[in-house]
Amino acid sequence: MTTLDIATDIVCPPTDLWSDEPPVESDLHLQQIILLLSCLDWLWQDRNDYYASGNLTIYYNERQLKQRYFCGPDFFVVLDTEKRPRKSWVVWGEGGKYPNVIIEILSDSTANVDRKAKKELYQHTFRTPEYFWFDPNTLEWQGFTLIEGQYQPITPNEKGYLWSKQLGLYLGIFANKLRYFTESGELVPTPQESARQERLAKEQERLAKEQERLAKEREQQRAEKLAQKLRELGINPDEIA
């Protein structure tokens, strides 16, 4: 067998694979995934060194086409990679990178798998540094950090938020949704919330300027009335120091 024959026999595993995930469980699941994605993309809009997605297949074994070695987290973030559209996340096509953060949205049909089988997978195979789950119906909420190969619970702060070292953000429940919070505890807004806040700030600035203009106008009117009264008394207001 020649070198050419050997090279011809080598079959490289595909990297351009389509996602193979079923539809999300419910509207609550969809809304939560979109919320996590949109807020992070808004916050990191000037960054190009991460990839975040939801309900997208992660292919982590070249044998996946035969033995179905793949998994689709509800939401995940990969750091130190290129931000660009993808059909799926193919580990062997991404330099062996696995997610840095995974969040699963629990449901009646997936909760046991998310708490057990997927937790084991993310801990031992993916070795994902941080894993969280959230139930949008019961608001059950828990997070884990990988320490010496084992997931340990993340201790909540006084507000019940869990710190994500990977994201540099807190995660916590706000208005029955899982949201991001800055290190100082400020809510990371959605793009729509940010736009409303910006409009409100501009309106407040406009009102403040209008109040200042009206105050100056009233002061000028009072000064003019006083000057007129002095003139009626035979006093030149311009000569008063």
From TrEMBL:
Coiled-coil region: none
Occurrences of domain Putative restriction endonuclease (ranges): 22-170
Pfam families xref list: Uma2
InterPro entries membership: Nuclease_put_TT1808, Restrct_endonuc-II-like, Uma2
Region (Disordered): 191-221
Basic and acidic residues bias: start-end ranges: 195-221
PANTHER family attached to this UniProt entry: SLR1095 PROTEIN (PTHR33352), SLR1612 PROTEIN (PTHR33352:SF3)
Name used for this protein in its record: Putative restriction endonuclease domain-containing protein
Organism for this UniProt entry: Microcystis aeruginosa NIES-3804
Lineage summary: Bacteria, Bacillati, Cyanobacteriota, Cyanophyceae, Oscillatoriophycideae
